[in-house]
Amino acid sequence: MKRYLDGPTSPKQQIMFEILGLSRKKTRHRWTRIGNISEQGALSPAIVVAGEKFSNTLAESRSHLRVVTRVSHPFTIEDYPVTDENFCLMGIPCLRVATKNKNELRQIFANFETEILTGPLHNFLCCKGLAMDLLTALSKDVGFDFGVYLVADDKDGRELENGQWDGIIGDLRSGAAHIGFGSISVTQSRKSAIDFSSPYYYSKFSFLVATTKAKIKLSAFLEPFSWKLWIAIFSALHATAIAAAIFE
């Protein structure tokens, strides 16, 4: 959508475009204005992600998002940092947490930013793999900062009997995490609970079976039963025929 800052008939026309974000409210999606862009630059008074408001300008600051994942080779691989230096030789820093509470996770990441690397509910680790490489590249292209943590129950997510969700999907629905990144299979029930991006990996399953012999023996019809059972069958047939002939 475009607007004219000085009016459509003004000799000094400046075209301004509105920046719209697609937000989800209950079961419906709606477009929400999050800023505008013109010749003077881009301006966004606020961006809302997973129910949290980030007040900033697009040109001056970046959003910091919590990303949840789980260990799944080769997408997300858990590794340990160098003990003395507390840095990752490969991969990116991540946290192993023991909570799914939104407020506790906020505090954990706030402590982590102040270099409190371990605590009662978290440990400092390194995460590497295909998903982590893709996440790093995406953050550079889109322009956001992130912190990664491994989901406490180590599950992708399924709907429970009470209507709640566990795993990564549960953290996304509660607002504990802003983005779920990893090898999460797209199913119909999960699509009704969260929004998926376009798939970046397709897996295929194959079945291996033994090859059949090319030549079939003439005695193949006898193989279903043992030779003792065949003798019993033929003996019973002959005995029945003899008995029928005698009594007729």
TrEMBL record:
GO molecular function: ligand-gated monoatomic ion channel activity
Main localization, broad class: membrane
Pfam families listed in its UniProt record: Lig_chan-Glu_bd (PF10613)
Superkingdom of source: Eukaryota
Keyword annotations from UniProtKB, A to Z: Glycoprotein, Ion channel, Ion transport, Ligand-gated ion channel, Membrane, Receptor, Transmembrane, Transmembrane helix, Transport
Segments passing through the bilayer: 227-247
This protein's name: Glutamate receptor ionotropic, NMDA 3A
SMART domains: Lig_chan-Glu_bd
Record GO cellular component, one term: membrane
Location of the protein in the cell: Membrane
Segments forming domain Ionotropic glutamate receptor L-glutamate and glycine-binding: 120-174
Topology of this chain in the membrane: Multi-pass membrane protein
